[in-house]
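Need residues for this backbone.
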């Protein structure tokens, strides 16, 4: 059976991207983030600098190569959940899976690198803000709202922060559960407040 050329191209593109990311991380861990330049990564990965930038927008992005995948997973936790599944448990399940993925022993060197590098910490912070806005937009759309409300943004930011807090905790699973108990309570309170406001507005 002939494999479509578009499928081969996509696999080749994904393999090249992964090779660049793996090479960059190896060099950063071996030499230090600030001691390695974009040209060093491209040369070691045997690709042109333009090819590297076609896959990664910046040097910092090389470290967070699963950034876009994580963002998609979080928004799909909202949009693709079962019709009767509550919102917060769906998000908790996704955050739990991401935390487990990022707290294994093999991930420790990466996070030590991030924690020790100001540019990477700043990039991670901006990434969290972007992820939170995407989740907030997905929540608002799921609720049929015409705009992203403060409640949606607040809950989304708490959900994203749960990942960072759990990653730094001695017991990541317990930390996720603790944070999400508060998130769920806040979301239920916001829902009740919204329902009450709607009821008052409907009175003659």
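Answer:
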């Amino acid at each position: 059976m002939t494999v479509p050329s578009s499928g081969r191209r996509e696999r080749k593109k994904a393999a090249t991207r992964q090779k660049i990311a793996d090479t960059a991380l190896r060099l950063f861990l071996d030499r230090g983030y600030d001691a390695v330049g974009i040209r060093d990564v491209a040369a070691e990965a045997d690709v042109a600098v333009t090819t590297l930038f076609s896959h990664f927008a910046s040097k910092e992005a090389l470290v967070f190569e699963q950034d876009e995948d994580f963002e998609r997973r979080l928004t799909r936790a909202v949009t693709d959940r079962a019709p009767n599944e509550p919102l917060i448990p769906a998000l908790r399940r996704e955050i739990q899976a991401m935390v487990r993925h990022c707290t294994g022993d093999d991930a420790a060197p990466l996070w030590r690198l991030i924690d020790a590098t100001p540019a990477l910490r700043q990039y991670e912070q901006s990434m969290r803000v972007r992820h939170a806005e995407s989740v907030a937009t997905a929540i608002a759309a799921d609720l049929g709202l015409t705009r992203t409300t403060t409640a949606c943004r607040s809950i989304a930011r708490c959900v994203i922060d749960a990942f960072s807090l759990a990653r730094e905790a001695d017991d990541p699973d317990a930390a996720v559960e603790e944070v999400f108990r508060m998130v769920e309570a806040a979301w239920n309170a916001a829902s009740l407040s919204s329902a009450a406001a709607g009821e008052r507005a409907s009175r003659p």
